[in-house]
């Protein structure tokens, strides 16, 4: 179980790193994912067990 949390943490940090480097607005990502901006922020504050959110964000960032 700890390995999954570490993997999710690495995915979330990678997403945040790309967002910061490319200076992408979080509101644009939230819109493309069909999420409320606050729900997107919650994904990064309270790591979600569902990997698909983070994988979709990585896909959108490419």
Task: Explain briefly what this protein structure is.
With 62 residues, this protein is an all-alpha fold. It has helices at residues 2-22, 26-33, 37-45, 51-61.
**In angstroms, what separates the terminal alpha carbons?**
29 Å
Note the overall shape.
globular
Helix proportion of residues, in percent?
over 70%
Order of helices and strands: HHHH
Helix tally?
4
Low-confidence stretches: none
Q: Mean of the pLDDT scores?
A: 91
Structural class, by secondary structure, is mainly alpha
Radius of gyration from the CA trace? 11 Å
Our estimate of the beta-strand percent is: under 5%
The tally of strands reads 0
Largest sheet: none
Task: Please tell me about this protein's structure.
- The protein has 62 residues and is mainly α.
- The protein contains four helices and no strands.
- It is globular, with a radius of gyration of 11 Å.
């Amino acid at each position: 179980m700890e390995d999954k949390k570490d993997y999710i943490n690495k995915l979330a940090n990678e997403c945040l790193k790309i967002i910061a480097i490319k200076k992408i607005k979080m509101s644009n990502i939230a819109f493309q994912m069909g999420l409320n901006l606050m729900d997107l922020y919650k994904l990064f504050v309270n790591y979600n067990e569902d990997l698909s959110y983070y994988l979709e964000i990585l896909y959108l960032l490419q």
